[in-house]
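Key result, reporting period 2: structure in, sequence out.
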């Protein structure tokens, strides 16, 4: 799956993951679980 988001190349890998997960409709809890926070 490829998602185009403006300015994404300026973000770090972890920030990019978080943005992509948010754009995919995931909840904050799901993002935290994916990043093992």
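The corresponding designed sequence is given below.
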């Amino acid at each position: 799956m490829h998602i185009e988001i403006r300015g994404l190349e300026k973000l770090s890998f972890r920030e990019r993951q978080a943005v992509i997960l948010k754009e995919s409709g995931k909840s904050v809890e799901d993002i935290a679980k994916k990043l093992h926070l």
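The longest helix spans residues 13-23. Residues 9-37 form one domain. This case is discussed further under Risks and Mitigation.
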